[in-house]
Amino acid sequence: MICVAALIFAAQIPTVFIDPFGATVRWEGWGASLCWMGNPFGERDDVADSLFTTKLAQVGDQVLPGLGMTIVRYNAGACSPNEVDGRRMVLSKNVLPFRQIEGYWLDPAKGESGWDWSRDKAQRAMMLKAKARGANRFELFSNSPMWWMCVNGNPSGAAKATDDNLRPDMYGAFATYLATIAAHSKKHWGVAFTSVEPFNEPASNYWSATGRQEGCHFSPATQAAFLPILRAELDRQGLRRLPIVASDETSFDQALSTWHALGEDAKALISRVNVHGYPHTEGSRAAFAEAIAGKSRWNSEHGDGDATGLSTARELSLDLNVLRASAWCYWQPLDGGGWGLMDSDMVAAKIKQANPKYFVLAHYMRHLRPGMALLSTSDPHVVAAYDARKRKLVIVVENEKEASTKLLDLSAFHIGRRVAKRWITTPKGAERYEKVDDLVFEPGSLKIELPASSVQTFEFPEVTLPKVASRR
């Protein structure tokens, strides 16, 4: 006799469909900006191991699962102490030392001797450590042109935050600065940058002379005017194949506005569109993705102060399922309070403790690896990817709220072994990326229990995509 109550309960369980037939995104990888954290921590091997390998890394008194990042965003600094044409850098009183990034071009009047390639040693050291550990995508980006290229000599921004701060007569110099760093890096450091991004949140209205970091406003018109100059200088220095990406606006809505304002000639020079995730769950990811259809996109900078990582997981799920980003980068893995994956005293150069957020991101970064196909799902809280070479299906589920149950519909896949490996993190509890018992399931579906405030990873071995899907 069939238990009617059991059937009713089963029917009420939300079902998640994993779609192997829809459009997929080839995953490029996970990464971070070195920037501020490079100053105090750039020469530490343990930090490099934790971020750029998947082995266990001893960081202080903690043993951490390496995150396996493969993308490095290297910041071309804007600061120097020297005099240029009788001027010196004007420094905001609110900028802490670790947020002052040393620039390489000290004096344009001195030719090659005006460059000092020994500067910014610590950030460069971390980039080289990342490369030695397998990082394979390197983006050169700028928060501000060199201070002497700025209207007011201040690399934090203009007197009025809505004013552009790159001097009109310095467009060529700024292009030369970026192209020369890229060319020098390839020849002398063994790092061939795979993209260059000249702007950072350029249309935002908070880059002022009293700011707390390097920053520069660029109106969409200025961006459009500068991009062909940069392209020409890259080409002149033998970097014709180095793509330009833009515009790294702070939000999806601002990115959409800038994209519409750039004009077709400028858009044609942009090989990939970068955007930052600071509106978090707000803003129209879908509208932005539709507007730039045909170009790949990265969420090139995410950061938030929630040490649990639950906010990060929720937003990351949206970035993969709605924005359909092909890569995702955290702003500063080492930073103060909940902003860092590791809570760190940046001034004293001391790492305190890994936040739960570190272990939350381990679920995504260690299991969704470069080259995998990012699949579509019917649930915005569920991320799925397929590794064709290893015949492995990966599903990561985040649950911010109370305990619940979901049913993963796996009927579209051919699964040889009906066993799911499983890892769990409960940021408000005790579990930190713990391997737990495998789940054995019947053909077609898997019922999963989701504890309150949790993230879980499920790996399915011996999975083959249907022939229709595999031809896509």
What does this structure look like?
Residues 29-240 form the Endo-beta-1,6-galactanase-like domain. This is Secreted endo-beta-1,6-galactanase. GO terms for molecular function: hydrolase activity, hydrolyzing O-glycosyl compounds. This protein has helices at 4-12, 35-41, 45-52, 121-132, 171-189, 220-236, 252-262, 264-269, 285-291, 310-323, 356-367, 467-470, and strands at 15-19, 25-26, 29-33, 56-59, 62-65, 71-76, 137-142, 195-197, 244-249, 270-276, 297-302, 327-330, 334-335, 342-345, 350-354, 373-374, 376-377, 382-387, 392-399, 404-409, 414-415, 419-425, 434-440, 445-450, 454-460, 463-464. By secondary structure, it is an alpha/beta fold. The protein folds into two domains: 10-23 and 376-470, Immunoglobulin-like; 29-370, Alpha-Beta Barrel (TIM Barrel), CATH 3.20.20.80. The chain has an eight-stranded parallel sheet. A seven-stranded antiparallel sheet has the order 2-16-18-19-25-22-23. Helix 6 crosses helix 7 (252-262) and helix 9 runs parallel beside helix 10.
List the helices and strands and how they pair.
Elements: H1 4-12, E1 15-19, E2 25-26, E3 29-33, H2 35-41, H3 45-52, E4 56-59, E5 62-65, E6 71-76, H4 121-132, E7 137-142, H5 171-189, E8 195-197, H6 220-236, E9 244-249, H7 252-262, H8 264-269, E10 270-276, H9 285-291, E11 297-302, H10 310-323, E12 327-330, E13 334-335, E14 342-345, E15 350-354, H11 356-367, E16 373-374, E17 376-377, E18 382-387, E19 392-399, E20 404-409, E21 414-415, E22 419-425, E23 434-440, E24 445-450, E25 454-460, E26 463-464, H12 467-470
Parallel strand pairs: 1-20, 3-6, 3-12, 6-7, 7-8, 9-10, 10-11, 11-12, 13-14
Antiparallel strand pairs: 1-17, 2-16, 4-5, 14-15, 16-18, 18-19, 19-25, 20-24, 21-26, 22-23, 22-25
